[in-house]
Amino acid sequence: MTTPALPSLEARVKLYRIGMGFAALQFVQAAVDLKVADALDDEPLGADELAKAVDADPDALGRLLRALSCHGFFEALEDGRFRHTELSRMIRQDSTWGAPDVIRFGWLHVPVSVLHHTADAVRTGEAAFPKVFGTQAQSYFVNDDPEAGAIFNRAMTANTILLNNAPALVAALAPRPGETVMDVGGGQGQLLLQLMEAYPDIHGVLLELEQVLPGVDERLRAGGALAARAELLAGDCRESVPGGADTYLYKHMMYMWDDDTVVAILRNTARAAASGARVVVVDMLLGGDSPFEEICTAVDLLMVLMGGGKRRSVDQFAALFEQAGLDYQGARSIEGDQSVLLTALVP
Description:
The protein contains 17 helices and nine strands. By secondary structure, it is α/β, with parallel strands linked by helices. The protein has three domains: 9-95, Winged helix-like DNA-binding domain superfamily/Winged helix DNA-binding domain (Arc Repressor Mutant, subunit A); 104-153, no CATH class; 163-287 and 307-345, Rossmann fold. The strands form two sheets. Strands 5-4-3-6-7-9-8 form a seven-stranded mixed beta sheet, sandwiched between helices. A two-stranded antiparallel ribbon has the order 1-2. It starts with 8 loop residues before the first helix and ends with a strand.
């Protein structure tokens, strides 16, 4: 019997990288928890010096740093010291990107517990989250585990910053002077904040769940720099949407819901808004050669586990707009961004 040829080195290495992926995420989480990136500035340091700064064992910390350097977090120098890389600077607590919360959510017990049920979810098509936690994801984060919900909300804010080309998105939205823009489900208000800073003649409204509003950026809250032009409303767009806005913005939220829920949200908007109001959905779409395709397809499968949602194509979104009674206007890509901007008008 002929012995099969050994798979290529590239294939074997990739297999083990994926197999050890859980460990890599935990290694980065450990660096975040120990605040290793915060202890390192521009000057390279050895593991002994860093261990004193973060109260860690020098040998174990050196091993952690070497392992992380293979993933681009820190660079191991020939003299045994370590220096920052672009990735390691991102996980500093004082960074403006919010990357530590992306890592924290990735290793949180919630996604980890759900991912254990991937095979069953694929076999049956049934969501794993309700089976594991006894309720739907949104209810869980709000009512059962608000601490995990807070990490989730901060991670979603980080996604707004890290996965979007915010200046290009803000320019593409281009509200007219005097417009009222309502960011529906806008989290902590990062996109609305950037819109209001870029267009000083617009009024901004943030509609979010009541439990989310205390975490909204202080510049939008009472006494904040933009408070005079900002309004914070508590509500659930699945139940109703307030009227009075010229543009209704839904950024990276429609993928969390099934088609019936998305149509219901869009219908709520159509009922509340005046004729000619603009409805804008910003979302990551399936297909194409985007550098974010790996992320998009992973999230698409995660939605099976979480329950109900999915990533969609342009044609699928166009059909949902039509079902909701809106006049679909078209889609445009955003340079350097994971997203596509889809627009419809209220007839």
